[in-house]
Amino acid sequence: MKNVTDSFVSLVHWPFAGSFGFNTDILATNPINLSVVLGVLIFFGKGVLSDLLDNRKLRILNTIRNSEELQGGAIERLEKARARLRKAEMEADQFRVNGYSEIEREKLNLINSTYKTLEQLENYKNETIHFEQQRSINQVRQRVFQQALQGALGTLNSCLNKELHLRTIIANIGMFGTMK
Q1: pLDDT tens digit string along 118-141?
Q2: Measured between alpha carbons, how far is residue 69 from residues 62, 64, 87, 101, 148 in Å?
Q3: Alpha carbons 23 and 34: distance in angstroms, whole number
Q4: For the whole model, what pTM was predicted?
């Protein structure tokens, strides 16, 4: 403590103006210089520093206010986007359900159509088989009839003579005449 008071006492013993030199006693010169510089800075810089801090405070508050407004707008847009997303998901689910039901309906229609086509083909096949059977039966009947007729004609020709033949023809012509 004595050193500090000695440094203030030594202020009285300054060298005269004619001499110039550096004071190398750090403890004696630094506290005085610092107190003078700090006093000048506080006195003159107080208003400037206060203005700078006030301006900085206003800019920070404006930035916070703008950020809050932007945040509110972003939250509102986010809610709208979420609502659109929910709506789109519901529509997609509806399309999916409708698509599946449409696919099932088309599948059933295709199966029914295929069954109908198969039934028609089966009917055509059965009709064709029946027709071919009838045609074959008719052909066999015609052959049997022709063979029987040829056999009967052969028997008649061998048994009939000319006179009997003429009487048979006249009798048949008479029968045809009465039929008309």
Answers
A1: 999 999 999 999 999 999 999 999
A2: 10, 9, 27, 48, 115
A3: 15
A4: 0.38
Structural tokens at position 11: 């202020």
- CA 78 to chain CA centroid, Å, is 22
Nearest 5°: the CA angle 164, 165, 167 is 65
Structure tokens at 6: 């000695």
The one-letter amino acid at 164: L
Map tokens 């009947």 to a residue: 141
Place of tokens 């096949």: 125
Q: How many CB atoms lie within 10 A of CB 28?
A: 16
The answer to whether 53 touches 61, Cβ cutoff 8 Å, is no
The residue assigned the tokens 């107190």 is 35
In this structure, what DSSP letter does residue 139 have? H
Burial of residue 30 (number of CB atoms within 10 Å: 0-12, 13-18, 19+): exposed
Question: What letter would DSSP give residue 22?
Answer: -
Tell how far CA 2 is from the center of its chain.
Answer: 89
Look-up of token digits 């206003």: 58
Give long-range contacts, CB 8 A cutoff, 24+ apart: 63-72.
none
